[in-house]
Amino acid sequence: MTLEILKQGAEGRLYIGEFKGESCLIKERFVKKYRHPDLDTQITRQRMKAEVKAAGRCLAAGILAPRILHSDLNTHKLYMEYFGKAQTAKHFIQKTVAESDADEAKQLLEVLCTRIGSIIGKMHANNIIHGDLTTSNILINPNLTDYDVIFIDFGLSHYNQATEDKGVDLYVLERALLSTHSEQPYLFEHILAAYRQECGKEEEAVLAKFEEVRARGRKRTMIG
C-alpha cells in the first residue's frame, strides 16, 4: 500500500494510512546515522513505548490524546488516531492574531490558554510529564459546538511524581511560548492561572520548583 506523506520533520515522517479498516496517522521514526545503531534502536524503542504509555494514561485520566492503534517496534512505526480537521495550537494562535483585532484575539486566546493550563494541571495531577510542551504539540480539533484540545507527541514523556520534572515541564512551555509567540506575552500567564486550579495538592511545591528552574535558566542565559 502506498502511503501519503503528511509531514516530514527532524524526528520522523507522518503518513496518512489505514489500520484494520480505520483511517489513521502513521508515525515513522528515522534512523539517526550519527548514533551507534544499537543505541539508536534502544532510544527509538524507548520513545515509542513512552508515547504509547503516556497516551494511554492520558485517555484513562480523561485527557484527550490520540488512541494508539498499533505499535511496530521493528519498523519504528506507530499507528494512531488521525484528526483530519485539526490544526496545531501554534497555527491556531497565529491565525487568530492575524485575522482578529487585538482585543478579540486576546479574548479568544485567553479561553484557549485556560483550557491548555487546565489540561496540563490534570496531567501533572496524574503524574504524567509530557517532556516537550510546545504549541506545535497541541492540536485544536473542531467539533459540532466548539473545539477539543488534544495533546500529542509524547516521545519524551514519563510517569513521575517529582515536582522538579513538573517544574521543568512548565519551564519548557514558557520558553517555547516566548520563542514562538513573543508578541502575546499574556499566554503563559493564563495557562499558569488555570494550571494552579487543576494540579492538585502539590500546587505550591510545583510552582516553587518552577521558579527555581526558571531562575537557573536565567542564570545560564546570563552566563552564556
From TrEMBL:
GO process annotations (BP): tRNA processing; tRNA threonylcarbamoyladenosine metabolic process
What InterPro entries does this protein's entry cite?
A: Bud32, Kinase-like_dom_sf, Prot_kinase_dom, Tyr_kinase_AS
Mind telling me which PROSITE patterns this protein's record contains?
Answer: PROTEIN_KINASE_DOM, PROTEIN_KINASE_TYR
The keyword Calcium appears for this protein? no
Annotated GO MF terms: ATP binding; hydrolase activity; protein serine/threonine kinase activity
Q: Which reaction does it catalyse?
A: L-threonyl-[protein] + ATP = O-phospho-L-threonyl-[protein] + ADP + H(+); L-seryl-[protein] + ATP = O-phospho-L-seryl-[protein] + ADP + H(+)
Q: Does the keyword Cell wall biogenesis/degradation apply?
A: no
Q: Which keywords annotate this record?
A: Activator, ATP-binding, Chromosome, Cytoplasm, Hydrolase, Kinase, Nucleotide-binding, Nucleus, Phosphoprotein, Serine/threonine-protein kinase, Transcription, Transcription regulation, Transferase, tRNA processing
**Listed GO CC annotations:** chromosome; cytosol; EKC/KEOPS complex; nucleus
Judged by the first EC level, this protein's enzyme class is transferase
Compartments reported by the entry: Chromosome; Cytoplasm; Nucleus
Which Enzyme Commission number(s) are listed? 2.7.11.1
Q: Which residues form the Protein kinase domain?
A: 1-224
What family does the database annotate?
Belongs to the protein kinase superfamily. BUD32 family.
Database matches in PANTHER family: EKC_KEOPS COMPLEX SUBUNIT TP53RK, NON-SPECIFIC SERINE/THREONINE PROTEIN KINASE
- Report what the protein is called: non-specific serine/threonine protein kinase
Taxonomy, top ranks, is: Eukaryota, Metazoa, Ecdysozoa, Arthropoda, Hexapoda
Q: Which gene encodes it?
A: LOC111601658
